[in-house]
Design brief:
single chain, alpha+beta, 18 helices, disordered N terminus
Length: 630
């Protein structure tokens, strides 16, 4: 443009200035579009006023928690942040993060269940005393309260008017609460009174969805209490610990600084389970959606014993009383408030052997559409692991093979026989081989499960089944073998060795894990199968190890009265990030131990909070394909 002086001499000074301005604008436009051919977003020039806009969000997006601020202020969830990142950073730095959401209550067979204050008040809509949810969770409300704010905050008084409803007058810069009636179409929110702006308009519509979760310990959050246990450093009968060595301090009487706390103690059901985390994440990511979730997943549950019948196995903690209702009946009672006993045709839940009824189970009745409080928008579940001996097979690979006191082995062997199963026994259940009495093959059970979902009004396309990962892998994705870093110190205290071998890992993978995974395919039952986490978990199996974090697999040990490497029990962090995403027996003793029994290893070999968070991320990806706010 330095040559414009020559042009000015020919066309005149005024015309030259116009030409200069035009060329400058053209230059800036070309620079803005760059090589992509599209106009690049440019920040507003300094001093230029930004046009105000309406920003709104639902007041309580996750009503499972009574506190409307639970997601941002207690869980500290934020939009866009993956749950795995949340687990490895936020939760890891604050293992007691969920304490404000847990309820202190005393459960006794004679005295019933009451909060320590004498009142039955709990922080969530789950009542651990009655083992039921507050009916409010399942109702489709006639309206929702939303927060509305003008950003950037302008001065003056504004009138906020929704549709034909009376307007609300308030300072333009404050956040106001507006009640939005439930409608099938968006409603126009008009804000007037902003200086220099005639009015602002925003379409408002709240989406309210209901998710039900069912399943076993893989879905309940077993081994991941809402608030983990904290041990004292010294047993009560040996204050200095000088007389103890190894892990014998644990076997000696000692008080816990804090016992583990669960949303539901009997089932070891936790907020730190993938169904609850996925629902919470879905709500955190969408300010215009309400996500309601109810989970009845329970440790030990099978499709027959747990989903269709009141669980004969006591779950994680019997609490001195039997389980009152099956997961199916509990869901039906919540959904069918007018007819809690059910309505409609009965469905057959009897076990079959090659077409012959065994008579072990009966029939179930669902809930007709006319009798439902509302429709279920999605079902999340894992079933099949307990149905095919998943836990007992893993325990067989690493469990008791003989004690340090050989002459009592004769007493151990019968108990071990009841506790463990072989991979071939698991394969027999998957394939329905007749040598396993009174049990259908797994696919027959899944067919019966599908009938139960249909009886509750849930078609297959609304069902999300989560794939079981392979826990028998190390940090390189290779099969596990015996390692000094396997977190089996607790078992080795009472047995000669933890005898996990590569052959046992191969046997479990070939005859149980792969066949079980093959049985969980979209083509089988037309369900949505969530399996994106399986690949990610291949390098985070039970024996994965990070050499830079040697303490991650350490069990606190005493030696001549001193804690080895100065690692004390009270300093154990149950939610510290580790290379492995499955709980070892040592983890369970340190984080889940409640003082009621020694070596509670039944919680071992379950996914950690990191694993549940990674699974939740993949579940959310699937849910977002179906559920988005208008």
């Amino acid at each position: 443009m330095k040559h414009l002086s020559c042009v000015a001499a020919q066309i005149g000074e005024g015309a030259a200035k116009v030409l200069q301005k035009t060329l400058k604008s053209l230059f800036l436009f070309v620079a803005a579009i760059g090589i992509t051919g599209t106009v690049a977003a440019q920040p507003a020039p300094v001093g230029q006023e930004v046009r105000p806009r309406i920003v709104w969000e639902v007041k309580n997006r996750f009503p499972l928690f009574r506190s409307e601020s639970a997601l941002p202020e207690i869980l500290k969830l934020s939009a866009g942040k993956p749950m795995l990142e949340w687990a490895t950073q936020t939760l890891a730095s604050r293992p007691d993060l969920l304490e404000p959401l847990t309820s202190d209550y005393v459960y006794s067979h004679k005295g019933g269940c009451k909060g320590k204050s004498g009142k039955q008040e709990f922080k969530t809509l789950w009542n651990p005393c009655t083992e039921t949810y507050d009916p409010e969770l399942f109702k489709l409300p006639t309206s929702h309260d939303i927060y509305v704010q003008i950003k950037p905050a302008p001065p003056g008084k504004c009138v906020f008017k929704l549709g034909s409803l009376p307007g609300v007058s308030a300072d333009c810069g404050v956040r106001v609460v507006i009640r939005v009636p439930r409608t099938t179409e968006p409603q126009a929110l008009v804000v007037e009174g902003i200086p220099g702006v005639p009015s602002l308009t925003e379409n408002i519509q709240v989406r309210d969805i209901l998710l039900f979760a069912f399943g076993d310990s893989f879905a309940s959050g077993e081994s991941n209490p809402d608030v983990p246990a904290i041990h004292t450093n010294h047993p009560t009968n040996a204050p200095t610990g000088e007389a103890l060595s190894g892990v014998t301090w644990l076997n000696s009487p000692h008080e816990l600084k804090r016992k583990p706390n669960w949303q539901d103690r009997r089932c070891h059901r936790s907020v730190l389970s993938w169904p609850i985390l996925a629902a919470a994440k879905l709500a955190a990511d969408d300010p215009h959606m309400v996500v309601r979730v109810a989970s009845w997943a329970c440790t030990g549950a099978e499709i027959s014993d747990g989903f269709y019948s009141a669980q004969l196995k006591s779950g994680a903690d019997s609490l001195g009383v039997p389980v009152q209702r099956s997961q199916f009946v509990a869901a039906r009672e919540a959904l069918c408030e007018k007819k809690p006993g059910g309505s409609g045709n009965s469905i057959d839940t009897v076990e079959h052997i090659k077409g012959t009824k065994s008579g072990m189970k009966g029939a179930a009745v669902g809930c007709l559409k006319a009798d439902r409080t509302r429709e279920i928008d999605g079902v999340l579940f894992t079933f099949g692991g307990n149905d095919v001996f998943f836990g007992p097979v893993i325990f067989d690979a690493v469990g008791i093979v003989g004690t340090h006191i050989p002459f009592v082995d004769w007493a151990i062997k019968p108990k071990r026989k009841k506790m463990v199963r072989t991979p071939l026994q698991a394969r027999a259940r998957i394939d329905g081989i007749a040598e396993v009495p009174f049990y259908d093959k797994l696919q027959t059970r899944y067919t019966a499960l599908n009938a139960g979902f249909a009886a509750l009004g849930v078609p297959p396309e609304k069902v999300y089944q989560i794939q079981y990962p392979n826990p028998m892998q190390d940090q390189n994705g290779t099969l596990c073998a015996k390692s000094k870093f396997d977190g089996m110190d607790t078992l080795e205290k009472v047995q000669r060795k933890a005898n996990l071998t590569k052959w046992e890992s191969e046997n479990a993978q070939t005859n149980m894990i792969v066949p079980l995974q093959d049985a969980i395919q979209p083509s089988r039952n037309k369900w949505n199968v969530v399996d994106g986490h399986v690949e990610a978990m291949k390098k985070h199996g039970l024996c994965a190890y990070d050499k830079n974090k040697e303490l991650e697999l350490a069990m606190p040990k005493l030696s001549s009265g001193n804690w080895v490497r100065n690692f004390k029990p009270s300093e154990y962090n149950h939610y510290a990030p580790t290379a492995r995403w499955f709980r070892t027996p040592d983890d369970v003793v340190m984080g889940v131990y409640s003082g009621s029994s020694f070596l509670p290893v039944s919680g071992a070999f379950h996914p950690s909070a990191q694993a549940h968070s990674a699974i939740a991320d993949k579940v959310v990806e699937h849910l977002k394909k179906r559920f988005t706010s208008p």
